[in-house]
């Protein structure tokens, strides 16, 4: 007997960032600077889902969740990181990101408002590096030993004739 299999999509926890909890600071003390939030590096050819969880900001407030979402990416030029889609599920934002220039770290900026009126602003860093082995163009410059010459971003250096 043959059965058609259906699949339920669930975001990958491999690319999950949870905001830091809110730590009370005693009067007169200076708040410590927290390290920037970041996701693991992606390849320019990847199209992946990334999650931001704001649960620490709404803990103890049953029924609160994400009501509105604004996402922006910098830098933003042709060929840079592209937002394919964004959605919210309770306390989680799920974004699908594609493209990006190898050697560039992008700032993904989130403006979030919750159902109960809370407002959060967070930025997550996403480095884009060449993880896959790209096809070598026929006009790529090579050393005598066959090693492809690359620029500072890992892209092959091409001969001027092409």
Secondary structure: helix percent: under 10%
The ordered H/E elements are: EEEHEEEEE
Mass-distribution shape: extended
Give the rounded overall mean pLDDT.
88
What is the CATH-assigned architecture of the largest domain? Sandwich
Separation of termini? 57 Å
Number of domains: 2
Strand content: 35-45%
Structural class: mainly beta
Write down the CATH topology of the largest domain. Answer: Immunoglobulin-like
Low-confidence stretches: none
Name of the CATH superfamily of the largest domain:
Immunoglobulins
Number of helices: 1
Written account of the structure:
The chain is mainly β. It has 2 domains: 13-128, Sandwich (Immunoglobulin-like); 134-162, no CATH class. The protein has one helix at 55-58, and strands at residues 16-18, 37-38, 47-53, 66-74, 82-89, 92-98, 104-114, 119-128. The strands form 2 sheets. It has a 4-stranded mixed β-sheet, with no helix packed on it. A 4-stranded mixed β-sheet has the order 2-8-7-4, with no helix packed on it. Strand 7 and strand 8 (119-128) form a beta hairpin. The chain starts with 15 loop residues before the first strand and ends in a 34-residue tail after the last strand.
């Amino acid at each position: 007997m043959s059965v058609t299999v259906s699949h339920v999509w669930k975001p990958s926890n491999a690319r999950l960032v949870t905001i830091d909890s809110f730590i009370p600071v005693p009067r007169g003390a200076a708040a410590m600077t927290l390290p920037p939030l970041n996701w693991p590096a992606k390849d320019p050819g990847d199209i992946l889902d990334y999650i931001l969880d704001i649960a620490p900001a709404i803990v103890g407030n049953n029924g609160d969740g994400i009501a509105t979402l604004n996402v922006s990416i910098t830098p933003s030029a042709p060929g840079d990181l592209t937002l394919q889609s964004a959605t919210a599920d309770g306390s989680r934002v799920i974004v699908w990101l594609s493209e990006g220039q190898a050697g560039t770290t992008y700032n993904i900026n989130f403006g979030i408002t919750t159902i109960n009126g809370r407002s959060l602003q967070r930025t997550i860093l996403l480095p884009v590096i060449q993880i896959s082995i790209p096809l070598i163009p026929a006009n790529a410059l090579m050393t005598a030993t066959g090693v492809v010459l690359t620029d500072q971003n890992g892209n092959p250096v091409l001969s001027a004739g092409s």
